[in-house]
């Protein structure tokens, strides 16, 4: 069974940084692309970033380009999202998701507020 | 970026009804389309992948169809547990994009 467990969320001041992690199990992690998707309170779903199986291809939403960095450690079956220069509009539940987004974690909440 | 236009944004229906949601892509995505159900406080749950394939364990009252730019999602004989928000999502091209969502409410 695929399991994706996010961590690292919390309350952070505008302009500061935060690093999210996603621990994967139940599948061969280094065979699949991975993604981050977010959902602001009461809003719809927004794809944030994706990374290929070997980190050779990385893409970002325009809304986070230049501020967020996605990475992965295949030896640790883990996905990361380094978020910097955080803004109030980055407040959301952040999910990691596998491949074509068929499997999702339960999310970690990031709140950007002073 | 591929825009996904989902309609309606909300829908009221009764138990036993048949409901249909549509999703239109701004360019051809073949059948690279997922449909999700989301309940409050929960992660989205995949119901349909590749536009028309039912995910394992999902009841057969859920179905999807379409290809290219026009897609349809149908729930036959609504059950009480089906009242939720539904999203379409394309994975034909990055960035992956979602429809705005359809909130299905009890009439």
Give a short overview.
The complex is a heterodimer of chains A (114) and B (107). Chain A is mainly β and 114 residues long.
Folded structure, characterized:
The complex is a heterodimer of chains A (114) and B (107). Chain A is mostly beta strands and 114 residues long. Helices cover 0% and strands 51% of the residues of chain A. In chain A, the strands form 2 sheets. In chain A, strands 2, 4, 5, 6, 9, 10 and 11 form a 7-stranded mixed beta sheet that branches. In chain A, strand 9 and strand 10 form a beta hairpin. The N and C termini of chain A lie far apart (40 Å). The mean pLDDT of chain A is 97. With 107 residues, chain B is mainly beta. Chain B has strands spanning 4-7, 10-13, 19-25, 33-38, 45-49, 53-54, 62-67, 70-75, 85-90, 97-98, 102-106. Chain B is globular and about 35 Å long. Chain B starts with a strand and ends with a strand. The model of chain B has no long low-confidence stretch (mean pLDDT 97). The chains are: A mainly beta (114), B mainly beta (107). Chain A binds chain B through residues 35, 37, 44-47, 50, 59, 61, 95, 100-107, and chain B through 32, 34, 42-44, 46, 49, 55, 87, 89, 91, 94-101.
How much is the radius of gyration of chain B in Å? 13 Å
- The best one-word shape of chain B is globular
Global Rg of chain A: 13 Å
Output mean pLDDT of chain B: 97
Molecular shape of chain A: globular
* Main beta-sheet strand count, sense and barrel state of chain A: 7 strands, mixed
Mean pLDDT of chain A: 97
Q: Can you give the helix content of chain A as a percent range? A: under 10%
The number of distinct helices of chain B, counting runs of at least 4 residues, comes to 0
The proportion of residues in beta strands of chain B is over 45%
Q: Low-confidence runs of chain A (pLDDT<50, min 5 residues)?
A: none
Number of helices of chain A: 0
Topology of chain B as a string of helices (H) and strands (E): EEEEEEEEEEE
Strand segment count of chain B:
11
- Counting helices, strands and paired strands, the structural category of chain B is mainly beta
How far do the termini of chain B sit from each other?
36 Å
């Amino acid at each position: 069974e695929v399991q994706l467990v996010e961590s690292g969320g919390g309350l952070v001041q505008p302009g500061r940084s935060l690093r999210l992690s996603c621990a994967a199990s139940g599948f061969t992690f280094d065979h699949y692309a991975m993604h981050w998707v977010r959902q602001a309170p009461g809003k719809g779903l927004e794809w944030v970033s994706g990374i290929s199986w070997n980190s050779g291809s990385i893409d970002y939403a325009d809304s986070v380009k230049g501020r967020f960095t996605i990475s992965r450690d295949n030896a640790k079956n883990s996905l990361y999202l380094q978020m910097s220069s955080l803004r109030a509009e980055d407040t959301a539940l952040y999910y990691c998701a596998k491949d074509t987004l068929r499997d999702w974690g339960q999310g970690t909440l990031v709140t950007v507020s002073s | 970026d591929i825009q996904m236009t989902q309609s309606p944004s909300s829908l009221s229906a009764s138990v036993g009804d048949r409901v249909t949601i549509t999703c239109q892509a701004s360019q051809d995505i073949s059948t690279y389309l997922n449909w999700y159900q989301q309940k409050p406080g929960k992660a989205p749950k995949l119901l349909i992948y590749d536009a028309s394939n039912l995910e394992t364990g999902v009841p057969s009252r859920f179905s999807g169809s379409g290809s290219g730019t026009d897609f349809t999602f149908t729930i036959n004989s609504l059950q009480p547990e089906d009242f939720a928000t539904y999203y379409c999502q394309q994975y034909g091209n990055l960035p992956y994009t979602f429809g705005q969502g359809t909130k299905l409410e009890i009439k």
